[in-house]
User: What shape does this take?
Amino acid sequence: MPVKSPPSYVGLDVAKDQLDYSLSETEDGRCANTPEGRAQLIQKLRGLPAPRVVCEASGGYEKPIVAELLQAGIEACVVQPGRARAFAYAEGLMAKTDRIDAGVLRRFGQKITLRLVTPQDPVTSTLRELLEHRRQLTTQLAEVAGRLELAGPTLGRLLTVQQQFLEQQIAQVETMITQHIDQNPDLKSKSARLQEIKGVGPVLAATVLAYIPELGQVESRQLSALIGVAPFPDDSGKKPAPRHVRGGRAQVRHVLYMSALCATRWNPILSEFYQRLRANGKPAKVGIVAVMRKMTCLMNKVIQEPDFVLAR
Assistant: This one.
């Protein structure tokens, strides 16, 4: 079999208007973050043996270039900005410019094994956009409701109109989410299967399907770590410290937390599990996180095994 050549790592710092790239310690450059500029960059990368681009998540500005790289058959990795900055500090590098950041990202990819970005399914991408819009609307509604409590008569009338508008928009986008899921047989069957678990409602089912494409394809332990409900040890010497959950996909974890609260009351099995933990002296938050992890395992199981029967 032919031996696959090692990747040629390219660091890419993404800004709204420009892209700074680092091809090596001695070669770097800059192009505009426009369709023409991105096309020029991709053409340059085609001349490298097995190019692999490493960039940071930049509030969405990285999405166009990543999508075009994947379409051109070029591998890409998107990393958390905090990880790249910590790597720069580990190198003893305190300075920070776009050019420096591009070089840091290139060296980061050379030293650390990173997960490759996979092309997104258009159906899943649309569902994710709708859910993000719903989250933004609900956040605005909560802010308006908080201001309305202390508002005077004039401001109160304005805020009431805004509140009604946001409620209408939320209802509209929720209808669009339901219709989008119903129009896709795969999403519809998975959503129905997930909601067989008491405590999993339409919002959690849609959120999991949108943000966890690995659902049903990885082990439950891996899925718990992806979501951020796997406790990590923090021991040192002879002194064990309490374990904490960290990282993961916050969009899923926030919704899962509220569903776990519901499950501790209305799911007989999970409620008994939670009460047993509390009786053994576990704090309430520890018990809720344990329920979240149990729900994660259950959701993964019902998707992995269509014939799996839930206990009642």
